[in-house]
Write a structure and sequence with these properties.
about 140 residues; six-stranded mixed beta sheet; alpha/beta
Length: about 140
């Protein structure tokens, strides 16, 4: 079954940009762990169909950092995506709001998990941005 290259739900928007060879997932509100997992399953299915390992993850509307979601992404989903997309390396550009970046310096319950998610030892490559232009510039500069 071929997936649409654009999918919109009340929770998220998913789009494949063949001109830039990247996928964009925009979360439109804070999500529970099951809802986040559903959006990520759609993302990975489209990534496999399009053979696309360059992702822009827009979390600016997600609200505060959710520790269970962060742990699931880091420990389960991103490693699964890396295995599924191999041999293509996974590149993740994460768009964050200023409030979420501030939370990293003031909330000691989430900071270690986020720093672990962004660590260079992870099997994926990631960077955090405040603007979409910076995120797109970084993603398009990565090897395909």
């Amino acid at each position: 079954m071929q997936l649409p290259h654009t999918l919109s739900t009340p929770d998220y928007q998913l789009q494949y940009r063949p001109d830039l060879q990247l996928l964009i997932l925009r979360w439109l509100r804070p999500l529970s762990l099951p809802d986040m997992q559903a959006s990520c399953r759609q993302l990975l299915a489209l990534a496999l169909e399009c053979q696309c390992a360059h992702w822009l993850l827009d979390g600016r509307r997600e609200g505060p950092i959710n520790l269970p979601v962060t742990q699931w992404l880091t420990e389960e989903f991103f490693p699964e995506a890396v295995r599924s997309l191999a041999p293509h390396p996974l590149f993740l550009a994460a768009l964050r709001s200023p409030a979420r970046l501030q939370q990293l310096s003031s909330d000691t319950t989430v900071a270690p998990a986020v720093h672990r998610a962004l660590a260079p030892e992870q099997p994926y490559h990631t960077a955090v941005f405040l603007t979409e232009a910076e995120a797109l510039a970084w993603l398009t500069a990565q090897p395909h």
